[in-house]
Write the structure tokens for this entry.
Amino acid sequence: MSKVVTAFALLFLTAACATNPATGRTEFNIVSEQQELAMGKEAHEQVLREYGVYDEKPELNAMVDRIGHQIAASSPRPNLPWTFTLLDTPMVNAMALPGGYVYVTRGILERMNSEDELAGVMGHEVAHVAARHSAQSISRSTLAQTALVVAAVAAGAENTERYGLVAALGVGLLFTKYSRSQETQADVLGTDYMSSAGWNPHGSESMLQGLQRLQGGPTSGIERYFMDHPDPGKRVEDVRREIAKLDAIDSTRDERPMPRDAFVRALDGVITGNSTQKTIIRGTTAYNKTYGVVAQSPRGWKAITDSGSLFAFVPAEGQEVIYAKELSEDEVRDSLEKMGLSRVGSERVNTFTIDRWRGTSNGTTYTAQTTQQSAGNNAIALLHLAQGTGTTDALAQVVRTLEVGATKVKIKAPRLHVTTSRRGDTWASLAKGEDAAELAHLNGFDYPSDVPVGITVKVRD
């Protein structure tokens, strides 16, 4: 039997070699282009459900789509059914799925200060798709699944999907971790693609420098960006080397203007900070407009938006979170029991019953507290999940402030406003009591630094 397995495995490895369309190199890859398209389409629907599209300003969606398609046309896979989407999340990120699905978040868009910088972001993601990086990662991960590989080979390539080598992975691809070499390749190729499409390659460099300023700062979602796209300092150097190569071929690319004014003015009125079109975060208050759910964060905690939740609360320190989710009591119970938690008691707070849970999941002890509230035909659950065995009254604090079905809530989402800097302006005066360094970084400047006179500046209300 071992000889048969070895023979099948060798046959499989030989048959699974394919040419990378971006580099021309022969690489191990068991995922066909049709499978890429199918996986991307399946996962795309989940992404839209989880994050939503930011569509308050259709001109921004049109800009993302236009830039993306121009860059894709300069890639080695121009005929994919490319789809470019602006997601409604403050997370500072951009992502790509196999098959040509590319996403830019509202959080990263507001950080850009020219089309060239946005083209740098999108060129990087187009390069991941063009070089089939997700397909490579899937192929390598399945090498360990020898039995499935052998079964697939024995059944024939046309039956591969039946064995779950590819189809079952579709919805889990969004945050696929790329290797360091893949990230470097995407930076280099993406700079080439965006430059070939007509933008200044220095847009890639300044984009990375802008995001590098945020590392370690308080910006929502920046931790996710640097988790997915590591070592920004090295990436800047890699891009600079590629720009030098491009300049040696055509020095006029370096001379292309990178206009700031029109791009920044297009961001006037965009929701900023932790809010979204459906959920408004103002100070300690969270308000979900869909269900009219309003709540205050516990003492020392802050309110945030969170994909898959109406909103969430997180403490300044500690491994815990409170979610507000569209879940029934049965769904909450099933989820916690699957984690290995059991109900250990309950208490009454106002008109609410708060259930207490405890258990161990993957070697870690968790405690949880849950309560439910109806919202029309839907059920809203509040779930407090914490590592360890200690208990707090954090959920009880939220429950005491909770309103459901509120219709006259005078809370407006914070937004960007664009102004022109004047003589005497400083980042502190423009920030109006908020974080001056954060405002400088938002506008693409180091801090401390002077504010140039007469430039378009993004400020927050």
